[in-house]
Amino acid sequence: MTAPRPRFDKSWLYRQSRMLHAYLSAFAFIALMLFSLSGLLLNHPDWFKGRNPAVDHTLRLDAAELREAAGSADPARALAAIVAERIALKGGYKSGEVIDGEAQIRFEGVSGKSDLLIDLASGQVEATVEPATVTTMLHDLHRGKNSGAAWSWVIDLTAVLTLAFSLLGYVLFFSLRFRLATSLQLTGVSLAVLAVIFFVFVP
Question: Could you read off the pLDDT of 14-72 as tens digits, one per residue?
Fold first, then answer.
């Protein structure tokens, strides 16, 4: 006579799901609020149209600094580094080119943007620095634009943990026997509404 196969312990699964659901909520709720707020502002850019005023700076690079930059493998980046030591620029180095005796350099980042125009004959530097507003910062953080590798990891981690948090929530639905049918019906209705909006109203 064969021994009966052990039954799967659903109560253990539900206990573990509740524990993990509670732990993940500590991070997931904060991340969801941040990305929900930034997504709302991104979807309604006309709500806050204010801009921080740009600040203009001028300075002059000496002949030694110009020679040092000209002799480097990337003169535009070298010039950007020299100017960044003397002016509080916003953003990180984005692009730069040297054309007809002038260097045009751009910095972009979540904190703002900066544009440099450098006359390579005289060393004259004209810099325009525009700090970001809270709204534009939230926009860039939501999209991961110019936010660097570390924030990209935060976005990926948020997506993975939110997905796990949601899946655990559905597992817990099955522990609520009296509410399971209602929960599944609401899930079906939600999917149907999203499908109708997508196929009917989205151009």
Answer: 777 777 777 777 777 787 788 888 788 777 777 776 677 889 999 999 999 999 999 99
For residue 45 the two structure tokens come to 């850019």
Reported in sequence order, the residue ranges of 34-136 that DSSP labels E, i.e. its strands, are: 55-60, 92-99, 102-109, 112-119, 124-131
- Write down the pTM of the prediction: 0.66
By CB atoms closer than 10 A (0-12, 13-18, 19+), residue 92 is: middle
Residues 6+ apart with CB under 8 A from 70: 120
Task: List the structure tokens of 12.
Answer: 């253990």
The residue count for the chain: 203
What is the distance between the alpha carbons of residues 135 and 41, in angstroms, rounded to a whole number?
Answer: 7
Contact 62, 123 (CB under 8 A): yes
